[in-house]
């Protein structure tokens, strides 16, 4: 379900894809008709290639050695999971098609196609843009930041709903922080049988955690100012934010 808040500046598809890749801890690999799951086995090069460490007896290793070089011989799938338990916790999926080649005791995967799938739609990422992009500067800190905000500062989250249009809060039962990047904070608004997302933009991008702290403070100041006087009516009382919404 979409909500009515206007969406503002946000990371582009290539940057979003690289952010998903940068923080993913596991991946699924499909090659030669077989599918294997790997946890904590991959790293990413500066240009977006994926280096995977597999057992010597892995079917994937055999498939990579036998596959024609520079042909799409495998598909890698990475899931972007919201760090805070919400309904619909998978925020995006990244699919990379390409080829493996043995390299220094590992398999080096060179993507030839990148597809980013989100609830808002599917985007095929330009290969050159993918290779040149860098992850969002807050990507690796996002999980820690959002869980701290949800667990330690639920009052701040509720305060931020003062910046959300009343129609988007209609029948809301819970509001949680869903995502944060250098351009803004996204809130997940849950209802009994549906949910929607609302984005709160920063006045300027945040390039590190210190700048993010200042941007969040500015949002809270703005929310406080919006609360008084309250011409638009009261914000509905929300349930406590503890518990799982996965």
Summary, kept brief:
The strands form two sheets. Strands 1, 2, 3, 4, 5, 6, 7 and 8 form an eight-stranded antiparallel sheet that branches.
Structural class: alpha+beta
Provide the succession of SSEs. HEEEEHEEEEHHHEEEH
Multimer state: single chain
| Main pleated sheet | 8 strands, antiparallel
Description:
The protein is an alpha+beta fold. It is 25% helix and 33% strand. The chain has 6 helices and 11 strands. It has helices at 13-23, 59-66, 127-132, 142-152, 154-160, 209-226, and strands spanning 26-31, 34-39, 42-44, 50-52, 74-81, 90-103, 106-118, 121-125, 174-181, 184-190, 195-201. The strands form 2 sheets. Strands 1, 2, 3, 4, 5, 6, 7 and 8 form an 8-stranded antiparallel β-sheet that branches. It has a 3-stranded antiparallel β-sheet with strand order 9-10-11. The longest helix has 18 residues, at 209-226. It is elongated, with a radius of gyration of 20 Å. The relative contact order is 0.16. Residues 230-246 have low confidence and may be disordered.
Features:
246 residues; alpha+beta; 8-stranded antiparallel sheet; 3-stranded antiparallel sheet; 6 helices; 11 strands; 25% helix; disordered C terminus
SSE blueprint:
Elements: H1 13-23, E1 26-31, E2 34-39, E3 42-44, E4 50-52, H2 59-66, E5 74-81, E6 90-103, E7 106-118, E8 121-125, H3 127-132, H4 142-152, H5 154-160, E9 174-181, E10 184-190, E11 195-201, H6 209-226
Antiparallel strand pairs: 1-2, 1-5, 3-4, 4-7, 5-6, 6-7, 7-8, 9-10, 10-11
């Amino acid at each position: 379900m979409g909500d009515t808040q206007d969406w503002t500046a946000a990371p582009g598809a290539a940057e979003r894809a690289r952010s998903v890749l940068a923080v993913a801890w596991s991946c699924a690999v499909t090659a030669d008709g077989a599918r294997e799951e790997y946890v904590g086995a991959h790293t990413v090069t500066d240009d977006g290639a994926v280096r995977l460490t597999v057992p010597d007896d892995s079917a994937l290793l055999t498939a990579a050695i036998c596959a024609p070089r520079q042909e799409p011989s495998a598909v890698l799938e990475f899931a972007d999971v919201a760090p805070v338990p919400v309904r619909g916790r998978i925020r995006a999926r990244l699919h990379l098609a390409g080829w493996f080649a043995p390299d220094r005791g590992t398999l080096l995967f060179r993507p030839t196609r990148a597809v980013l799938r989100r609830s808002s739609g599917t985007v095929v990422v330009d290969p050159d843009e993918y290779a040149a992009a860098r992850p969002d500067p807050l990507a690796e800190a996002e999980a820690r930041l959002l869980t701290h905000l949800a667990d330690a500062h639920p009052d701040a989250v509720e305060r931020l709903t003062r910046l959300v249009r009343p129609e988007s809060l209609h029948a809301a039962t819970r509001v949680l922080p869903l995502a944060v990047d250098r351009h803004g904070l996204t809130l997940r608004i849950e209802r009994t049988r549906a949910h929607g997302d609302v984005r709160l933009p920063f006045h300027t991008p945040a390039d590190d955690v210190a700048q993010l702290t200042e941007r969040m403070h500015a949002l809270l100041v703005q929310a406080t100012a919006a609360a008084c006087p309250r011409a638009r009516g009261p914000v509905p009382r929300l349930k406590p934010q503890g518990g799982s919404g996965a």
